[in-house]
Amino acid sequence: MCRHLGYLGPERSLAELLLEPAHSLLEQSWDPHDMRGGGTVNADGFGAGWFGDDGRAVAYRAAVPMWTDVSFPQVATQIRAPTVVAAVRSATVGMPVAAEACAPLSDGRWLFSHNGKVGGWPDSLAKLAGRLEITDMLTAAPTDSAVLWALLRQRLDAGEPPDRAVRELVREVLAVAPDSRLNLLLCDGHRLIATTWTHSLRVRRSTGTVTVASEPSGPPQRWAEVPDRCLLIADTEHVEVTSLEEDS
Ligand code: GLN
């Protein structure tokens, strides 16, 4: 299953965050340590997103293993940001290998990643996707993650608070596809909202900095495991973890 990472804190280069640490996201693309539910490498593409000076979300995504992209290391050295969401992908069987399918997905305001799969795809999600606009469906890559993103965006566009939108999305997907794995990660530039539903997630805090990641990277100290079936809300000052169970 894919690996993802979200960072809020002092400005860092993408290289410092994603390429240079011990057991970096780059290393997790070929040697992940905690894959649950299948997959041995994350070689079906990758992406890194940040927010530009105008506040718009930008994402560099490619349908190749992170370690084969000759341009990314140069870009990663030059791009510095206080907010980053990145992922390496192991495509779920039957889903296309394409840049559009790589996280982070974005509409320019949010960065979104999904680590997992929706059970019974595509029939299960079709029950929920019926309420999507046709344009949403056409612009989305034909993956479970893209439909999850379209469904979440609908809630966000309607003004639902992001933590509630994520919680409600998990609840409604589990209602039609209870065997799903739903580690979601959403960022508006200031907050990270993440879920654990049968995949690994760790969080590390230090003064003015928070990182959430499927697997720890960098110094091993201070990483805490986020329990399964939880919602995490984090900014640079606070981390709050609550159970998703009572709403499922
Ligand atoms: N199901 C999603 C995809 O295929 C996520 C895959 C994963 O977490 N391995 O893109």
What would you note in describing this structure?
There is one protein chain. This protein has a single domain, classed as Aminohydrolase, N-terminal nucleophile (Ntn) domain (Glutamine Phosphoribosylpyrophosphate, subunit 1, domain 1). Helix 6 crosses helix 7. The model has no long low-confidence stretch (mean pLDDT 92). A 7-stranded antiparallel beta sheet has the order 3-2-4-1-10-9-11. It has a 6-stranded antiparallel beta sheet with strand order 5-6-7-8-12-13, covered by helices on one side. The chain contains 7 helices and 13 strands. The protein is globular and about 45 Å long. The structure holds glutamine. The site of glutamine has 16 residues, from strand 6 and helix 6. It catalyses: gamma-L-glutamyl-hercynylcysteine S-oxide + H2O = S-(hercyn-2-yl)-L-cysteine S-oxide + L-glutamate. This is Gamma-glutamyl-hercynylcysteine sulfoxide hydrolase.
